[in-house]
């Protein structure tokens, strides 16, 4: 593990009886970056987070988090990390300020330091006005912000965010993303699991895709998208004559679901679009509509993870 590595995992295995959940996975996360773990429901994301955050033991492999071995130095790991999961630590009966002060007590901060840290976090998370109201009255977005603020009381260097924006409205999601970016700018490392691929695309420096207990793809969002074929231009024609002429002209075009449309393989670059439009213009072929489709993380996810129908058959 180098000094720049916040998380170093080699050969991580976890089984429940006969059921192999993690089948030897390697993960390396650089300090001050966002690393996102993607996988279908049941792929083992939460299990990974639980092992990395010392909540459960691995069946095998070596795992170092914030410079410490989770098996032999779990207390040192715990002191360096924060975890916000799908189940919030917020106490509904307490108000926002009291929730934060409670965390300050748990982290053994002095009364004065606890007050100072609480005031600072209320400010940072835009909860000053709500600080005196019971958490039970908070909206979903406010609750998530309070939950994350509570995790930060102990100034963790590595934060595990398990599905941080599930169920939030678009504005609250964006606020959460902004907070994550600010944390990373301050040098914190974020290990993010999410079911929203646009979230991983937006935030993650690197992504690993988990499937059937193995990491089946790993890289920057751009690298992963480049590995996936499927970039194309979709052309829709005014009439069947235009369609037929275009089909003859553009040898590798394939039919679209729309009867008057064609898909032409393309990397979506301006140069290739210009060539295509010039070709159509030269033949005076009229195009009603042109749209460019580049692979997104949805395509990456679908290409790398198992076919759910197939999985059903094999697990029966
Ligand atoms: P989701 O997106 O649904 O939260 P996940 O990727 O986080 O999925 P995990 O919760 O890590 O998935 O579960 C992975 C697999 O491990 C599942 O098949 C689950 O049934 C199994 N599993 C998890 N905990 C246990 C346990 N305590 N005993 C037995 N099997 C378990």
From TrEMBL:
Sorted keywords for this record are: Antibiotic resistance, ATP-binding, Cell membrane, Membrane, Nucleotide-binding, Translocase, Transport
GO terms assigned for molecular function: ATP binding; ATP hydrolysis activity
InterPro entries registered for this protein in UniProt: AAA+_ATPase (IPR003593), ABC_transporter-like_ATP-bd (IPR003439), ABC_transporter-like_CS (IPR017871), ABC_transporter_ATP-binding (IPR050763), DrrA (IPR005894), P-loop_NTPase (IPR027417)
Per the record, its GO cellular-component terms are: plasma membrane
Localization of this protein: Cell membrane
GO terms, biological process: daunorubicin transport; doxorubicin transport; response to antibiotic
Q: What are the ABC transporter domain coordinates in residue numbering?
A: 7-237
Q: How does it sit in the membrane?
A: Peripheral membrane protein
Which NCBIfam families has this protein been placed in?
drrA
Family according to the record: Belongs to the ABC transporter superfamily. Drug exporter-1 (DrugE1) (TC 3.A.1.105) family.
- Name of the protein in question: ABC-2 type transport system ATP-binding protein
Q: What is the lineage of its organism?
A: Bacteria, Bacillati, Actinomycetota, Actinomycetes, Pseudonocardiales
């Amino acid at each position: 593990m180098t000094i720049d590595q916040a998380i170093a995992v080699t050969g991580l295995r976890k089984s429940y009886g006969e059921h192999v959940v993690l089948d030897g996975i390697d993960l390396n996360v650089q300090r001050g970056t966002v690393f996102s773990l993607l996988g279908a429901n049941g792929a083992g994301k939460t299990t990974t987070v639980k092992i990395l955050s010392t909540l459960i033991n691995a069946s095998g492999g070596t795992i170092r988090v914030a410079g410490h071995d989770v098996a032999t130095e779990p207390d040192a790991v715990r002191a360096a990390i924060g975890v916000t999961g799908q189940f919030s630590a917020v106490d509904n009966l307490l108000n926002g300020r009291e929730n934060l002060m409670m965390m300050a007590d748990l982290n053994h901060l002095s009364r004065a330091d606890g007050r100072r840290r609480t005031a600072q976090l209320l400010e940072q998370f835009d909860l000053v006005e709500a600080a005196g109201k019971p958490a039970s009255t908070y909206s979903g977005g406010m609750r998530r912000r309070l939950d994350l603020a509570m995790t930060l009381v102990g100034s963790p260097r590595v934060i595990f965010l398990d599905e941080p924006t599930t169920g939030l409205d678009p504005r609250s999601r964006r606020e959460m993303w902004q907070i994550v970016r600010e944390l990373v700018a301050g040098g914190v490392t974020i290990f993010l699991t999410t079911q929203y691929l646009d979230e991983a695309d937006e935030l993650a420096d690197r992504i690993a895709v988990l499937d059937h207990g193995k990491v089946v793809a790993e890289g920057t969002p751009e690298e992963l998208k480049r590995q996936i074929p499927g970039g194309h231009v979709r052309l829709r024609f005014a009439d069947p004559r235009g369609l037929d002429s275009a089909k003859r002209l553009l040898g590798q075009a394939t039919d679209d679901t729309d009867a008057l449309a064609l898909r032409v393989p393309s990397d979506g670059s301006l140069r290739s679009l210009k060539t295509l439009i010039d070709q159509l213009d030269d033949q005076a072929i009229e195009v009603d509509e042109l749209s460019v489709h580049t692979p997104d993380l949805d395509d990456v996810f679908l290409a790398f993870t198992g076919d759910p129908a197939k999985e059903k058959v094999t697990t029966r």
